[in-house]
Design goal:
- With about 260 residues, this protein is α/β, with parallel strands linked by helices.
- The chain has one domain (about 5-255): Phosphoenolpyruvate-binding domains (TIM Barrel, Alpha-Beta Barrel).
- It is built from eleven helices and eight strands.
- Helix 2 links the parallel strand 1 and strand 2.
- Helix 2 (about 25-35) packs across helix 11 and helix 4 (about 60-70) packs parallel to helix 5.
- The chain starts with a helix and ends in a 14-residue tail after the last helix.
- Bound molecules: 3-methyl-2-oxobutanoic acid.
- 3-methyl-2-oxobutanoic acid (KIV) binds near residues 41, 199 and 211.
Length: about 260
């Protein structure tokens, strides 16, 4: 799978599914389930390492898990998270993104708004594809004052939209938007040319992403925006296929997984 396949899906109005993975065995099943995109998320700090935040995750750990996931399958597009402070300057970003690309990633994901524009431009110019991540950005949890829904006030929603347009213009080829009202998720998907992947961003984004352990019901706490897809299924593969089908058919997310502006 290549990035242009995902862009084509957006142009054709076909929703696609994505999920996090951290090892080869799950990534093999995810490939079999026909899920289009896998993110080696720094959420591994939470679900694999049992840490409270993603802040302690290191570049070496991301490279290790990226290599493992890339050995599991080739049917999907593979994105890897750049961990906390590994892209604080454009130069850091170039050097550190190269490590993840050499570990098997096809794209790197960076959290942040307008300030990332120049870094994204420099990465893209050198042939390093970028996914931007806005809305709730977990690496900034202490700045945000907790894991809270973002963009509820009109001015905040306008800032998020303006940031997204700047990051697309700078060269981002995918956008993840996390925990925002459904109305903002819909607006982002409408205004951007690149696919917008939502997590807690309503049903009208171009794609959905979930943390693997949340959607299998094995995380310590399942967030409101997720659903246990293993419930009622008899295997992990069936659960993954049920998730992919529900996203394609627009049955997930349902209203109970979404946030409103009020
Ligand atoms: O690290 C992660 O799992 C993520 C997703 C929540 C999008 O960034």
């Amino acid at each position: 799978m290549y990035i242009h396949d995902l862009h084509t899906k957006k142009q054709q109005g076909k929703r696609f599914s994505s999920i996090t993975a951290y090892d080869a065995s799950f990534s093999r099943l995810i490939g079999q389930a026909g899920i289009e995109l896998v993110l080696v998320g720094d959420s591994l700090g939470n679900v694999i390492q049992g840490k409270k935040t993603t802040i302690p995750v290191t570049l070496d750990e991301m490279a290790y898990h990226t290599e493992a996931v890339s050995r599991g399958g080739e049917a999907f597009f593979l994105v890897s998270d750049m961990p906390f402070m590994t892209y604080a300057t454009s130069n850091d970003a170039l050097v550190n993104a190269a490590v993840l690309m050499q570990a098997g990633a096809q794209m790197v994901k960076l959290e942040g708004g307008e300030w990332l524009g120049d870094t994204i431009f420099q990465l893209a110019e050198r042939g390093l594809p970028v996914c931007a991540h806005i809305g709730l950005t977990p690496q900034s949890v202490h700045k945000m004052g907790g894991f809270k829904v973002q963009g509820k006030q009109r001015e905040d929603a306008e800032t998020i939209l303006a940031d997204a347009l700047i990051l697309e213009e700078a060269g981002a080829e995918l956008l993840v938007v996390e925990c925002v009202p459904s109305s903002l998720g819909a607006q982002l998907a409408k205004r951007l040319r690149i696919p917008v992947i939502g997590i807690g961003a309503g049903p009208q984004t171009d794609a959905q992403i979930l943390v693997l352990y949340d959607m299998l019901g094995i995380s310590a706490r399942i967030p409101k925006f997720s659903r246990n897809f293993l419930d009622g299924e008899t295997s992990v593969l069936d659960a993954l296929q049920a998730y992919a089908d529900s996203v394609r058919n627009g049955r997930f997310p349902a209203p109970e997984h979404c946030f409103s502006d009020s």
